[in-house]
Amino acid sequence: MKVPQAPKKEKILEIHGHQRVDPYYWMNERENPEVISYLNEENAYLEEIMKPKEEFKNRLFEEMKGRIKEDDQSVPYFKSGFYWYVRYTQGAEYPIYCRKAGSLEGPEEVLLDVNELAKGKAYYQVGGTSSSPNQKMLAFAADEVGRRIFTIHFKNLETGEILSESIPQVTGNLTWAADNQTIFYSKQDPQTLRSFQIYRHVLGTKPEEDVLIFEEKDEEFTCAVHKSKSEDYIFIHSSSTISSEMRFLKSDNPSGEFQVLQARIPHLEYAADHYGDYFWIRTNDQATNFKLVKTQVTQTGKENWQDEIPHRKEVLFENFELFSGYLVTQERSNGLTKIFIKPWEAEGHFLDFEEDTYTAWISINPEFESDMLRFGYTSLTTPNSTFDYHMPTRKKLLLKQQEIVGGYDSSAYQSHRIWATAEDGVLVPISLVYKKSLFSQNGDNPLLLYAYGSYGFSMDAYFSSTRLSLLDRGFVFAIAHIRGGEDLGRPWYEDGKLLKKRNTFTDFIACAEKVIAEKMTSASRLYAMGGSAGGLLMGAVINMRPELFHGVIANVPFVDVVTTMLDESIPLTTGEFQEWGNPKNKEYYEYMLSYSPYDNVEAKDYPNLLVTSGLHDSQVQYWEPTKWVAKLRELKTDSHLLLLHTNMEAGHGGASGRFNALKELALEYTFLLMLEGKAE
Known about the structure:
The chain is α+β, with helices and mostly antiparallel strands. The protein contains twelve helices and 38 strands. This is Oligopeptidase B. Keywords: Hydrolase, Protease, Serine protease. Pfam families: Peptidase_S9, Peptidase_S9_N.
């Protein structure tokens, strides 16, 4: 089959007296039949190239699917007199939301069977769900396209009827007032999809009559609405990359006026909860790594904030949970999460986690009057686990560990951490896992190096049953905890953004060089993978050091950085200026241009490359990966594979449903194993 060649239609883009020529700019015309034709041509080309491995890909899909317990359910949690849980049935793609009144021995009430709601639809995703305080009405949001544009529906839980009343074109974020009649919800700008308005809706009224409560005028901010754990207050939370502002209203006064908790100040971030007479606030006010403060609900400005847990230079304060008898905190030091339990009037203690690399987190704890802490735990070798921890006696009870159908022996696998030395001498942690019987430190192992490295998102070590399909075929899997995430604290993030963004890429290259130097793999058997901003990472590193990698997977990659950040009509752009910079400023323009993957494609050899995209993606527009592939096809000087797969029915998160998504993963793993000669 002929390799796809996209038509070139040169467009000159000029700013700061500098011209760029973009021959594939026209691909942003979503409705243009020529664009759709090209995407279909690329999909057909991929199918033709992968056709000899079709049977293997199907077997791999069945293998991964076969490890999933199909008739599974989440661990119930207790709230408002009910036990709440989600379950799946044999062969079903979608979840069933359920509850039981008073006791787990009671009859099950099905709140939503998403399998029924999704019938006949190519895509269906339930977003926010919320039951009214009297438990008689359920509000839920559904997206039928994959562009994260939802419709809010209402279900009468006494009659089982889904009302004809609905609120279209919303974000899916919603919460009830205490009167059981009023909901607050957020709405997005129809073009940029920025969540910028909060509305009030009263049951039985028309959506067009809903009252606009708040509008976020600053284009760098988004807003959302939620309720305090106490359910006494409704919060409107506005946030940008570097600043926060919250408003609050008593939930039993839905028609009242929201008050500002603390007016926005550049570089001041905070998030509040409520307990007793106080708002409890996580903030970076004179605290780079954040701290916990409290303030009386009648005096909320930061001049009244009292330190409860002061700032610590080496510890990132991540999260907290309030109980009537305890304060529980989640923090991060040396790249690992820790959970600390403190009785209000006594000394506290840390939970004990014994593995070298792991992830732990505070889970769902909706009740104040409880001595039991629900927390989660996983590692590269330990399946996702849910625990109850009795805080007075320090007894830990495993409620559920993810079941791997067909059996799983964690002792057959090894995980540990090593450290790479970055270009500027900083040490970067790498978490690794492999099957002991298939590992030999002589450079012969294929190794998949994964990273993200943006927005302060920490890429923690976690278990994946699907990953076993690689480990059991000899792959080493590694996570590079590069700057741009918050893995080693807030400064780790600050050193990987704006005019320090290149640290993210050079850190990843240093990690690649480290695993080669340690003979865990070789350049001819090293693979890299990243998605979204992690796809930008992939594009940047293969421009900088293409010879380091045999193959690369870039999922929904953000690769046309300069053009996208200059276009404020595109979703997310204005809210991202504090992450990447505003290229209308010449200094940022030139810096972005120095690493933007699309702008730096050259006539040289590149690794084998699989790129994925979604036609309805609201975060990385489909034309970014499409243009990038077209330019690579034009300029690259090698005969390596270059494949583009566009999901024509989904968005940023890929296919909906728990098994459909596995088909996309099966393609990616087949690509890697084919390059290794193991897709047989």
